[in-house]
Structure formats: C-alpha cells, structure tokens
C-alpha cells in the first residue's frame, strides 16, 4: 500500500515538473498592440479597424459579458471580456488567420478559436432575438407604404435575395446553373424589370454593406460547416446592431463582385403574379422613369 502511494506521489512530482518546464519554455507573447495602441484609437480609427463604433462595441460587451465572462484563478489570469469580444470581432471583420490574430492580441491559438466560437454562440443566443425578428403589424404597414411610395410596388414589405459565402467544399453533387435568354423584351416587360430591379436595390445594398463590414464573408471560411453558419449569422446580427446605432459605413475597397450570384431558373408558379404586376406597373406609366431617375440621381 505504501509502495503504491509513493509511486503516485512520484508521478505527481514528475507531471508537475514537466508542466512547469513546458510553461518556462513558452515564448513570451506581446499584448502591446491591444493594451497600448488600441486605447489611443480615435472613434474613426476604431470603427475602421473593428467595423463597429466604440459605442456599439461597448453595447455588445455589456450584453455578452455574463455568458462569456471568465474568472481569474490561482494559476492564470483570464482574458478580459473586452479583449475576448475584440478578438472575435476582429476575426469576423477581417477574416484573418487564427495564428495572425493570436500574435496580434498576444494570446494562444486555442484562445482565439474559443473566443470566436463562444462569441458567436452568445450573440446568437442573446442578441439575435432582439435584433433579428419578424416585424409586427405596424412595421409591416410602414414597410408596405415605403415600397409603394418609393417604387410604386404594391403590397410589398421587403425584398428577398441570396448571397454566396465561400466555405470548404462539402460532399455533394455539383449542380449546374442554366442561364436562359428570353430574347427581345417588350416595352411592358422592360417596365416590369425596371420597377422590380429598382425595388430590389434595398436587399442588394444590404448584402453589400453586410459583406463590406464583415470581410470574413468574402473569403473562404476554413472552419467546419456548423461554425461557418454561426459566424455568418453572427455577422447579420452585428450588421443590424451597427445599422440601428447609426454606425457610418465606408466602403474602403469597392468590389462589384460582392453579391454576384449564378443565374437561377424562373419558376412557372409565379407566372400569374408576374403578369398581374406587369399590368399594374404599366398603368399610368407616364412620367415614371423621370420620377425614378430623379430619386437615384
């Protein structure tokens, strides 16, 4: 019995010695950038780097701190909540490599990954229900009035579109997209396309601003598919927060390919609706193009 106890005691000493040796051999990390440079950022510099205003950043921190917060232990100090949020937001805003972010913030590689994963989970749990929700009757009426007054599209409360986000290839059969050329358009069809395209600008501009802010959506995401989906959803929540808080958006490097999608096949089920809209759009069409051109000038 005594022999077994001594063996266990020796194993503990050896384990402690090897752990201490591994810690002493670690290369020192520098957090100079976060602790010294970032605090001197102007509000504009902060927003250019983190894609959110300082006010929006503090709002986000205040809502996720209870779920993401950590406590110091006798053996190590925890990474402060503001730094953990900044690490995750930097990853989403730049799409940078985990190792690069690790060096920049002076933390371990696994810390960066954990910060991103925990931040996305917390935002989806805490902030998504607040900032992405189905509009109530009053909001729907307001949106319908806006679309009707601005583009003369009746009974419309929004525009739906899709946007391609590059990810690691998954096991699936590649699908081919067919481009259909309809030939020469009639005047009525041209009017229909013009009205509909004008109304759809709202969703195209939304995707442009979304991807302009969160550049991780432009690069191939090398994370697992489930985390890639959570990162994209988190970007949508953060985008709405920025828009609601009035954060300025400056497109530093305009890219006309932000929302280019493969052509999709027109479904026959919507033929009656398209015909009815085309008839509506071509009623009292005099002066419409002058009115619409004046809006976009």
Any idea how many domains? 2
- Any idea what the shape is? elongated
Distance between the termini: 90 Å
DSSP strand count: 0
| Average pLDDT metric | 79
**Which structural class do you get from the secondary structure elements?**
mainly alpha
Largest pleated sheet: none
Rounded radius of gyration (Å): 26 Å
Pick out the low-confidence regions: 1-5, 20-25, 172-182, 286-297
N to C succession of SSEs = HHHHHHHHHHHHH
* Total number of helices: 13
Estimated share of beta-strand residues? under 5%
Helical proportion?
55-70%
GO cellular component, one term: nucleus
Keywords: Hydrolase, Metal-binding, Nuclease, Nucleus
Family: Belongs to the HARBI1 family.
GO molecular function: hydrolase activity; metal ion binding; nuclease activity
What does this protein look like?
This protein is mostly helical. It has two domains: about 10-130, no CATH class; about 135-295, no CATH class. The protein has 13 helices and no strands. Helix 7 packs across helix 11. The longest helix is centred in the N-terminal third of the chain and has 23 residues, at about 1-25. It is elongated and about 75 Å long. Mean pLDDT is about 80; it is low at about 1-5, about 20-25, about 170-180 and about 285-295.
Fill in the keyword field for this structure.
297 residues; mainly alpha; 0% strand; elongated; disordered C terminus
What's the short story on this structure?
With 297 residues, the protein is mainly alpha-helical. The protein contains 13 helices and no strands. It has two domains: 11-131, no CATH class; 137-296, no CATH class.
């Amino acid at each position: 019995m005594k022999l077994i106890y001594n063996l266990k005691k020796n194993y503990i000493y050896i384990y402690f010695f090897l752990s201490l040796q591994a810690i002493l051999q670690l290369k020192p990390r520098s957090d100079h950038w976060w602790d010294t440079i970032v605090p001197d950022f102007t509000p504009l510099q902060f927003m250019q780097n983190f894609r959110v205003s300082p006010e929006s950043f503090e709002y986000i921190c205040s809502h996720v701190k209870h779920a993401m917060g950590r406590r110091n232990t006798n053996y190590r100090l925890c990474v402060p909540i503001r730094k953990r949020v900044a690490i995750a937001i930097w990853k989403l805003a730049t799409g940078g490599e985990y190792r690069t972010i690790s060096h920049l913030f002076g933390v371990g590689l696994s810390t960066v990954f954990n910060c991103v994963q925990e931040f996305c989970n917390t935002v989806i749990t805490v902030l998504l229900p607040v900032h992405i929700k189905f509009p109530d009757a009053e909001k729907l009426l307001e949106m319908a009035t806006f679309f009707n007054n601005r583009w003369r599209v009746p009974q419309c409360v929004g525009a739906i579109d899709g946007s391609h986000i590059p990810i690691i290839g998954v096991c699936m059969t590649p699908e081919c997209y067919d481009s259909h050329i309809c030939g020469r358009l009639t005047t009525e069809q041209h009017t229909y396309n013009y009205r509909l395209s004008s109304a759809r600008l709202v969703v195209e501009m939304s995707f442009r601003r979304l991807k302009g802010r969160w550049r991780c959506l432009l690069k191939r995401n090398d994370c697992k598919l489930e985390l890639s989906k959570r990162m994209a959803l988190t970007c949508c929540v953060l985008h709405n927060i920025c828009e609601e808080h009035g954060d300025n958006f400056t497109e530093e490097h305009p890219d006309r390919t932000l929302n280019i999608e493969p052509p999709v096949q027109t479904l026959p089920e919507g033929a009656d609706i398209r015909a009815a809209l085309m008839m509506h759009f071509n009623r009292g069409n005099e002066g419409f193009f002058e009115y619409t051109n004046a809006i976009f000038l």
